[in-house]
Amino acid sequence: MIEIEEADKKLKGFKFIDLFAGIGGFHYALKSFGAECVFASEIDKKASATYYLNHNMIPQGDITKIDEKDIPSHDILCGGFPCQAFSISGKQKGFEDTRGTLFFDIARIVNHHRPRIVFLENVKNLTRHDSGKTLNVVLNTLNDMNYDVHYKVLNTSKFGLPQNRERVYIVAFNKTYYSNSDFVFPVSNRTSCLNDILEKDPVDGKIIDRDDVQFYKNYTPQRNIFGEIDLPNKPIQIGKVNKGGQGERIYHPIGHSITLSAYGGGVGAKTGLYKIDGKIRKLSPRECARLQGYPETFIFPKSIPEAHKQFGNSVSINVLQYIIKEIINTVESNEQRTNARLSNGEEWFQKRKRDSFKV
Ligand SMILES: C[S@@+](CC[C@H](N)C(=O)[O-])C[C@H]1O[C@@H](n2cnc3c(N)ncnc32)[C@H](O)[C@@H]1O
Question: Is the full-model pTM beyond 0.90?
Answer without folding.
Answer: yes
